[in-house]
Amino acid sequence: MVLGVCRRVLGDVHEAEDAFRATVVILARKATSVIRREKMANSLYDVAYRTAKEARGRSARRRASQERVSMPARVEPADRESRHELRAILDEALTRVAARYRGVLFLCELEGLPRQDAPQ
CA 58, CA 80: separation in Å to the nearest integer? Predict the structure, then answer.
């Protein structure tokens, strides 16, 4: 039931599985103190639904943020000095990327690794 709720709300199998795991963790922490046995199914559903909706919101914000960041067209500098300047600009821009995304960015955009093969 919990996984089904997460799948319906999120529409993505992987995000649904993450929300399912988060729901189980939440309930494991609160089960004995908050939830009465006869209301367990209702509580499971409520927590799963809220967790999935929060995950959907985070996912939408992440996608919107990624869409705002646009990569400029590929530039081929004519001389060595221009290439050096472009690398310095690239290095500076990469320092502003969150550390958890930087490795994937390097692998996919700079090394050419397909996104589906990049570590999550």
Answer: 42
Domain boundaries, the chain: 2-67, 71-117
- Pick from 62, 25, 116, 65: nearest CA to 17: 25
Local structure of 69: helix, strand or coil: coil
The dihedral built from the CA positions of residue 34, 40, 46 and 52, taken in this order, carries a sign that is: positive
**Are 2 and 16 a contacting pair, CB within 8 Å?**
no
Q: Cα(47)–Cα(54) distance, rounded to whole angstroms?
A: 11
Rg (CA), the chain: 21
Digitized pLDDT (tens) for each residue of the chain, 120 residues in all: 888 888 888 888 888 888 888 888 887 777 666 556 666 677 778 888 888 998 888 888 888 877 776 655 565 656 767 777 877 787 777 778 777 777 777 677 766 777 777 666
**Residue 55 in tokens:** 């995950």
The answer to pTM > 0.85 is no
Q: Within 13 Å and on the Cβ side, how many CA atoms surround 25? A: 7
